Amino acid sequence: MTMNKLKKRLCALLCATMLIGTAGAAYATSDFTNDMKMSVPSRLTTQEGAASIEREYDHPDSPYFAHPDFYHMKSTASRTMLTGYQTFQQTSEWSCGPAAALTVLQWYGRADGWDEQKLADLRHPLKNVTVPGFPNGYPGTTLRQMKDIFDGVGGFHYISSSDYQKEGKTLSASDVRKFLKEGHPILICWIDWSGHWQAIIGYDDMGTANEADDVIIVADPYDTTDHNQDGYGIYSWQRFQSMFSMYNQFPESEGGSNQLFLVPIPDKK
To answer: How far apart are the first and last CA of the chain?
Structure first.
């Protein structure tokens, strides 16, 4: 073998090693600790909710899911991310709304003294409101009730799907990126789990103009299905948009059912 051929092979081997190392580093950042999670001030129940099966179904070597470290993930040219956003796993089957709201309060440094039950108690009762499948009353949270929570906590104003509906608008990808760049998580309610509140904390357009490959990153209070119960989830933006509804479960008096979102913004001091 000539010296030139040997140099070429060594160079190729070095490049391959660097590529493998880089790919390996991406997966090495997986975080199966609980550093990203808020402490649980009190539990609504011990036998229900995602918190009752804390990390029981984690699979660090899952062949089906990649597990990026969302807690430390930073914004890039294509991605807008709320770095350091902490998560919380709901402690009942109905408290996704208060749990998601709690993570927003934590993000803004306003969570002290609040828990799921205290936030839930700020909601107006759903008298004379019938939600299909709940003959004895709906325990979850409507858009209007989510507004109650931030009104009750105080010190917030908000932009919501109610405002957009008045203007004939829907939540767009550019809206999501704008709110995130301003440092604001977006609370969303949609048909996931037959009705679920989460917070959008990241958006990646993957460097392309077409939204078909865009991804949203959420803080999910019921994160039990992706083999890492860190409280984060990812969805295709287009697929999420196609199911961004509660399909007429909520009456218009409670904020309706379609494209429900709320962006709480702290008042300026």
So the answer is: 74
